[in-house]
Amino acid sequence: MLIAVIGVNHRTAPLEVREKLAFPEWGTSEWLNKLLAYPGIDGCTIVSTCNRTEIYVAPMELDMGMSSVWSFLSEKSGLDISEIKNYTFCHTLYDAIRHLFRVVSGLDSMILGETQILGQVKKAYEMALEAKSTNVVLNTLFQQAITTGKRVRTETGIDQNPVSIPYAAVELAKQSLGSLDGRSVLVVGAGEMSELTAVNLVANGVSSVIVSNRSYDRAVQLAEKFAGKAVKFDSLFQYMNQADIVISSTAARHYVIKPEEIESVMLQRAGKPIMMIDIAVPRDIDPLVRKIPGVNLFDVDHLQNVVDANLEERRRAAVEAEGIIEEELNEFMCWLSTRFVVPTITALKKLGEEIKQRELHRAFNRLGDLNERERKIISSLASSIVNQLLHNPVINLKQYALSPEGHLYTEITQNIFNLEVKGQHCKDKGLAPEQRKKVASCSGGHVSWEQTTNYREVP
């Protein structure tokens, strides 16, 4: 059974193309059933997020399966197949499996090591199970991929070091204040960065959110998301006394928080420290505020230093993750190869048994009246000859099953012995040279025999 993936992501296509190829969660089951009805598709799963759409299929024949996926994407998007190919990538078997393992481990994400993709792939697989669009091969593939993603995060800690400004702000807050449980935050400005930072602070224990913005209506909208309180901008410093953390990100072209105002606030706080995070560019908070006792002020440069250091940690963890992926990949390939070769070995032994029984019957008819002992000796001799003759082919096939050429040796054995293997059909001894060239171009020029064997598994 072949495995292939055709996909588009943030590196291969602009947003306007990704939008057309995206699959909304509520309609995915219907699209899975549509794809399953296309020629040559024995199983399929669709992974669709804001940054990627990937179609994983188990095609009966490579060319037919790929052609069906291109047509399916064209039907979905309304784009010509030629245009879709300009923005998509295609991997088959070994490369397709490695790609999925890297995706679920966060190594193919915009933010290296991000955790969300693991849950998204798991959800995509669950939807495919509900739609009954998978098969044994895809089930095993996605189950092992999810296991791999969990193992990578557990053993490498790749997702433990924040690599975005909002997450870095949380890490600095923890370093400055210790536990964030029960803490309060004052958000100055109601833009996207302020909101994201507040989201992450609340997720880490902050219990009270106050929002102040020049547009009071916008402050109300943001405060409602956290069950917080909105205050008018000219009342900002009256409420700063209640906050443990101040997040400021306005569009002002000048300082909106100045030393004299913070000195007044700190007098009211009676020495209670305050953490201030300025994520605005230009800065909202006068850097002289940092000199006031009890104030811990951080700006974008401080946060970026944390991000850079953590990104380097994630890169080191990614190297370790690649090693884990190779281990899991080899384990899956062993399973896949063994699953393919066992029916061939069974058919070969069955053929040997049929020949033995046929020739024994013929010999016994010619020899006439034999006693039981003589029949047993002749039967034992015939069994020994068949077993010894098939011993090396069977042992070698089991060994070759674990090699990159495993499918090739299996197919050749089926052709040489004219074996009829239930569930498998070998049309010939492989793809024609022009077909191999097509597959190679599809998979980036790297193609092995197991990827090009013109073999299909019949349901």
TrEMBL record:
Name the InterPro entries for this protein: 4pyrrol_synth_GluRdtase, 4pyrrol_synth_GluRdtase_dimer, 4pyrrol_synth_GluRdtase_N, GluRdtase_CS, GluRdtase_dimer_dom_sf, GluRdtase_N_sf, NAD(P)-bd_dom_sf, Shikm_DH/Glu-tRNA_Rdtase
Question: In its keyword annotation, does this UniProt entry include ATP-binding?
Answer: no
Domain (Glutamyl-tRNA reductase N-terminal) spans 6-156
Q: Which UniProt keywords apply?
A: NADP, Oxidoreductase, Porphyrin biosynthesis
Annotated active site residues, numbered on this chain, are C50
| Site label Important for activity, positions | H99
Q: Residue limits of the Tetrapyrrole biosynthesis glutamyl-tRNA reductase dimerisation domain?
A: 320-419
**Top-tier EC class:** oxidoreductase
Please state the Enzyme Commission number of this protein.
Answer: 1.2.1.70
The Gene Ontology biological process annotation of the record reads: protoporphyrinogen IX biosynthetic process from glutamate
Q: Does the keyword Electron transport apply?
A: no
Which catalytic reaction applies to this protein? (S)-4-amino-5-oxopentanoate + tRNA(Glu) + NADP(+) = L-glutamyl-tRNA(Glu) + NADPH + H(+)
Q: Which residues form the Quinate/shikimate 5-dehydrogenase/glutamyl-tRNA reductase domain?
A: 171-306
Q: Report residues binding substrate.
A: T49, C50, N51, R52, S109, E114, T115, Q116, Q120
Family label: Belongs to the glutamyl-tRNA reductase family.
Q: What is known of its domains?
A: Possesses an unusual extended V-shaped dimeric structure with each monomer consisting of three distinct domains arranged along a curved 'spinal' alpha-helix. The N-terminal catalytic domain specifically recognizes the glutamate moiety of the substrate. The second domain is the NADPH-binding domain, and the third C-terminal domain is responsible for dimerization.
Question: What is the role of this chain?
Answer: Catalyzes the NADPH-dependent reduction of glutamyl-tRNA(Glu) to glutamate 1-semialdehyde (GSA).
Subunit info? Homodimer.
What else is on record for this protein? During catalysis, the active site Cys acts as a nucleophile attacking the alpha-carbonyl group of tRNA-bound glutamate with the formation of a thioester intermediate between enzyme and glutamate, and the concomitant release of tRNA(Glu). The thioester intermediate is finally reduced by direct hydride transfer from NADPH, to form the product GSA.
Q: Which NCBIfam families match?
A: hemA, PRK00045.1-3
Q: What is this protein called?
A: Glutamyl-tRNA reductase
Instruction: State the species of origin.
Output: Desulforamulus aeronauticus DSM 10349
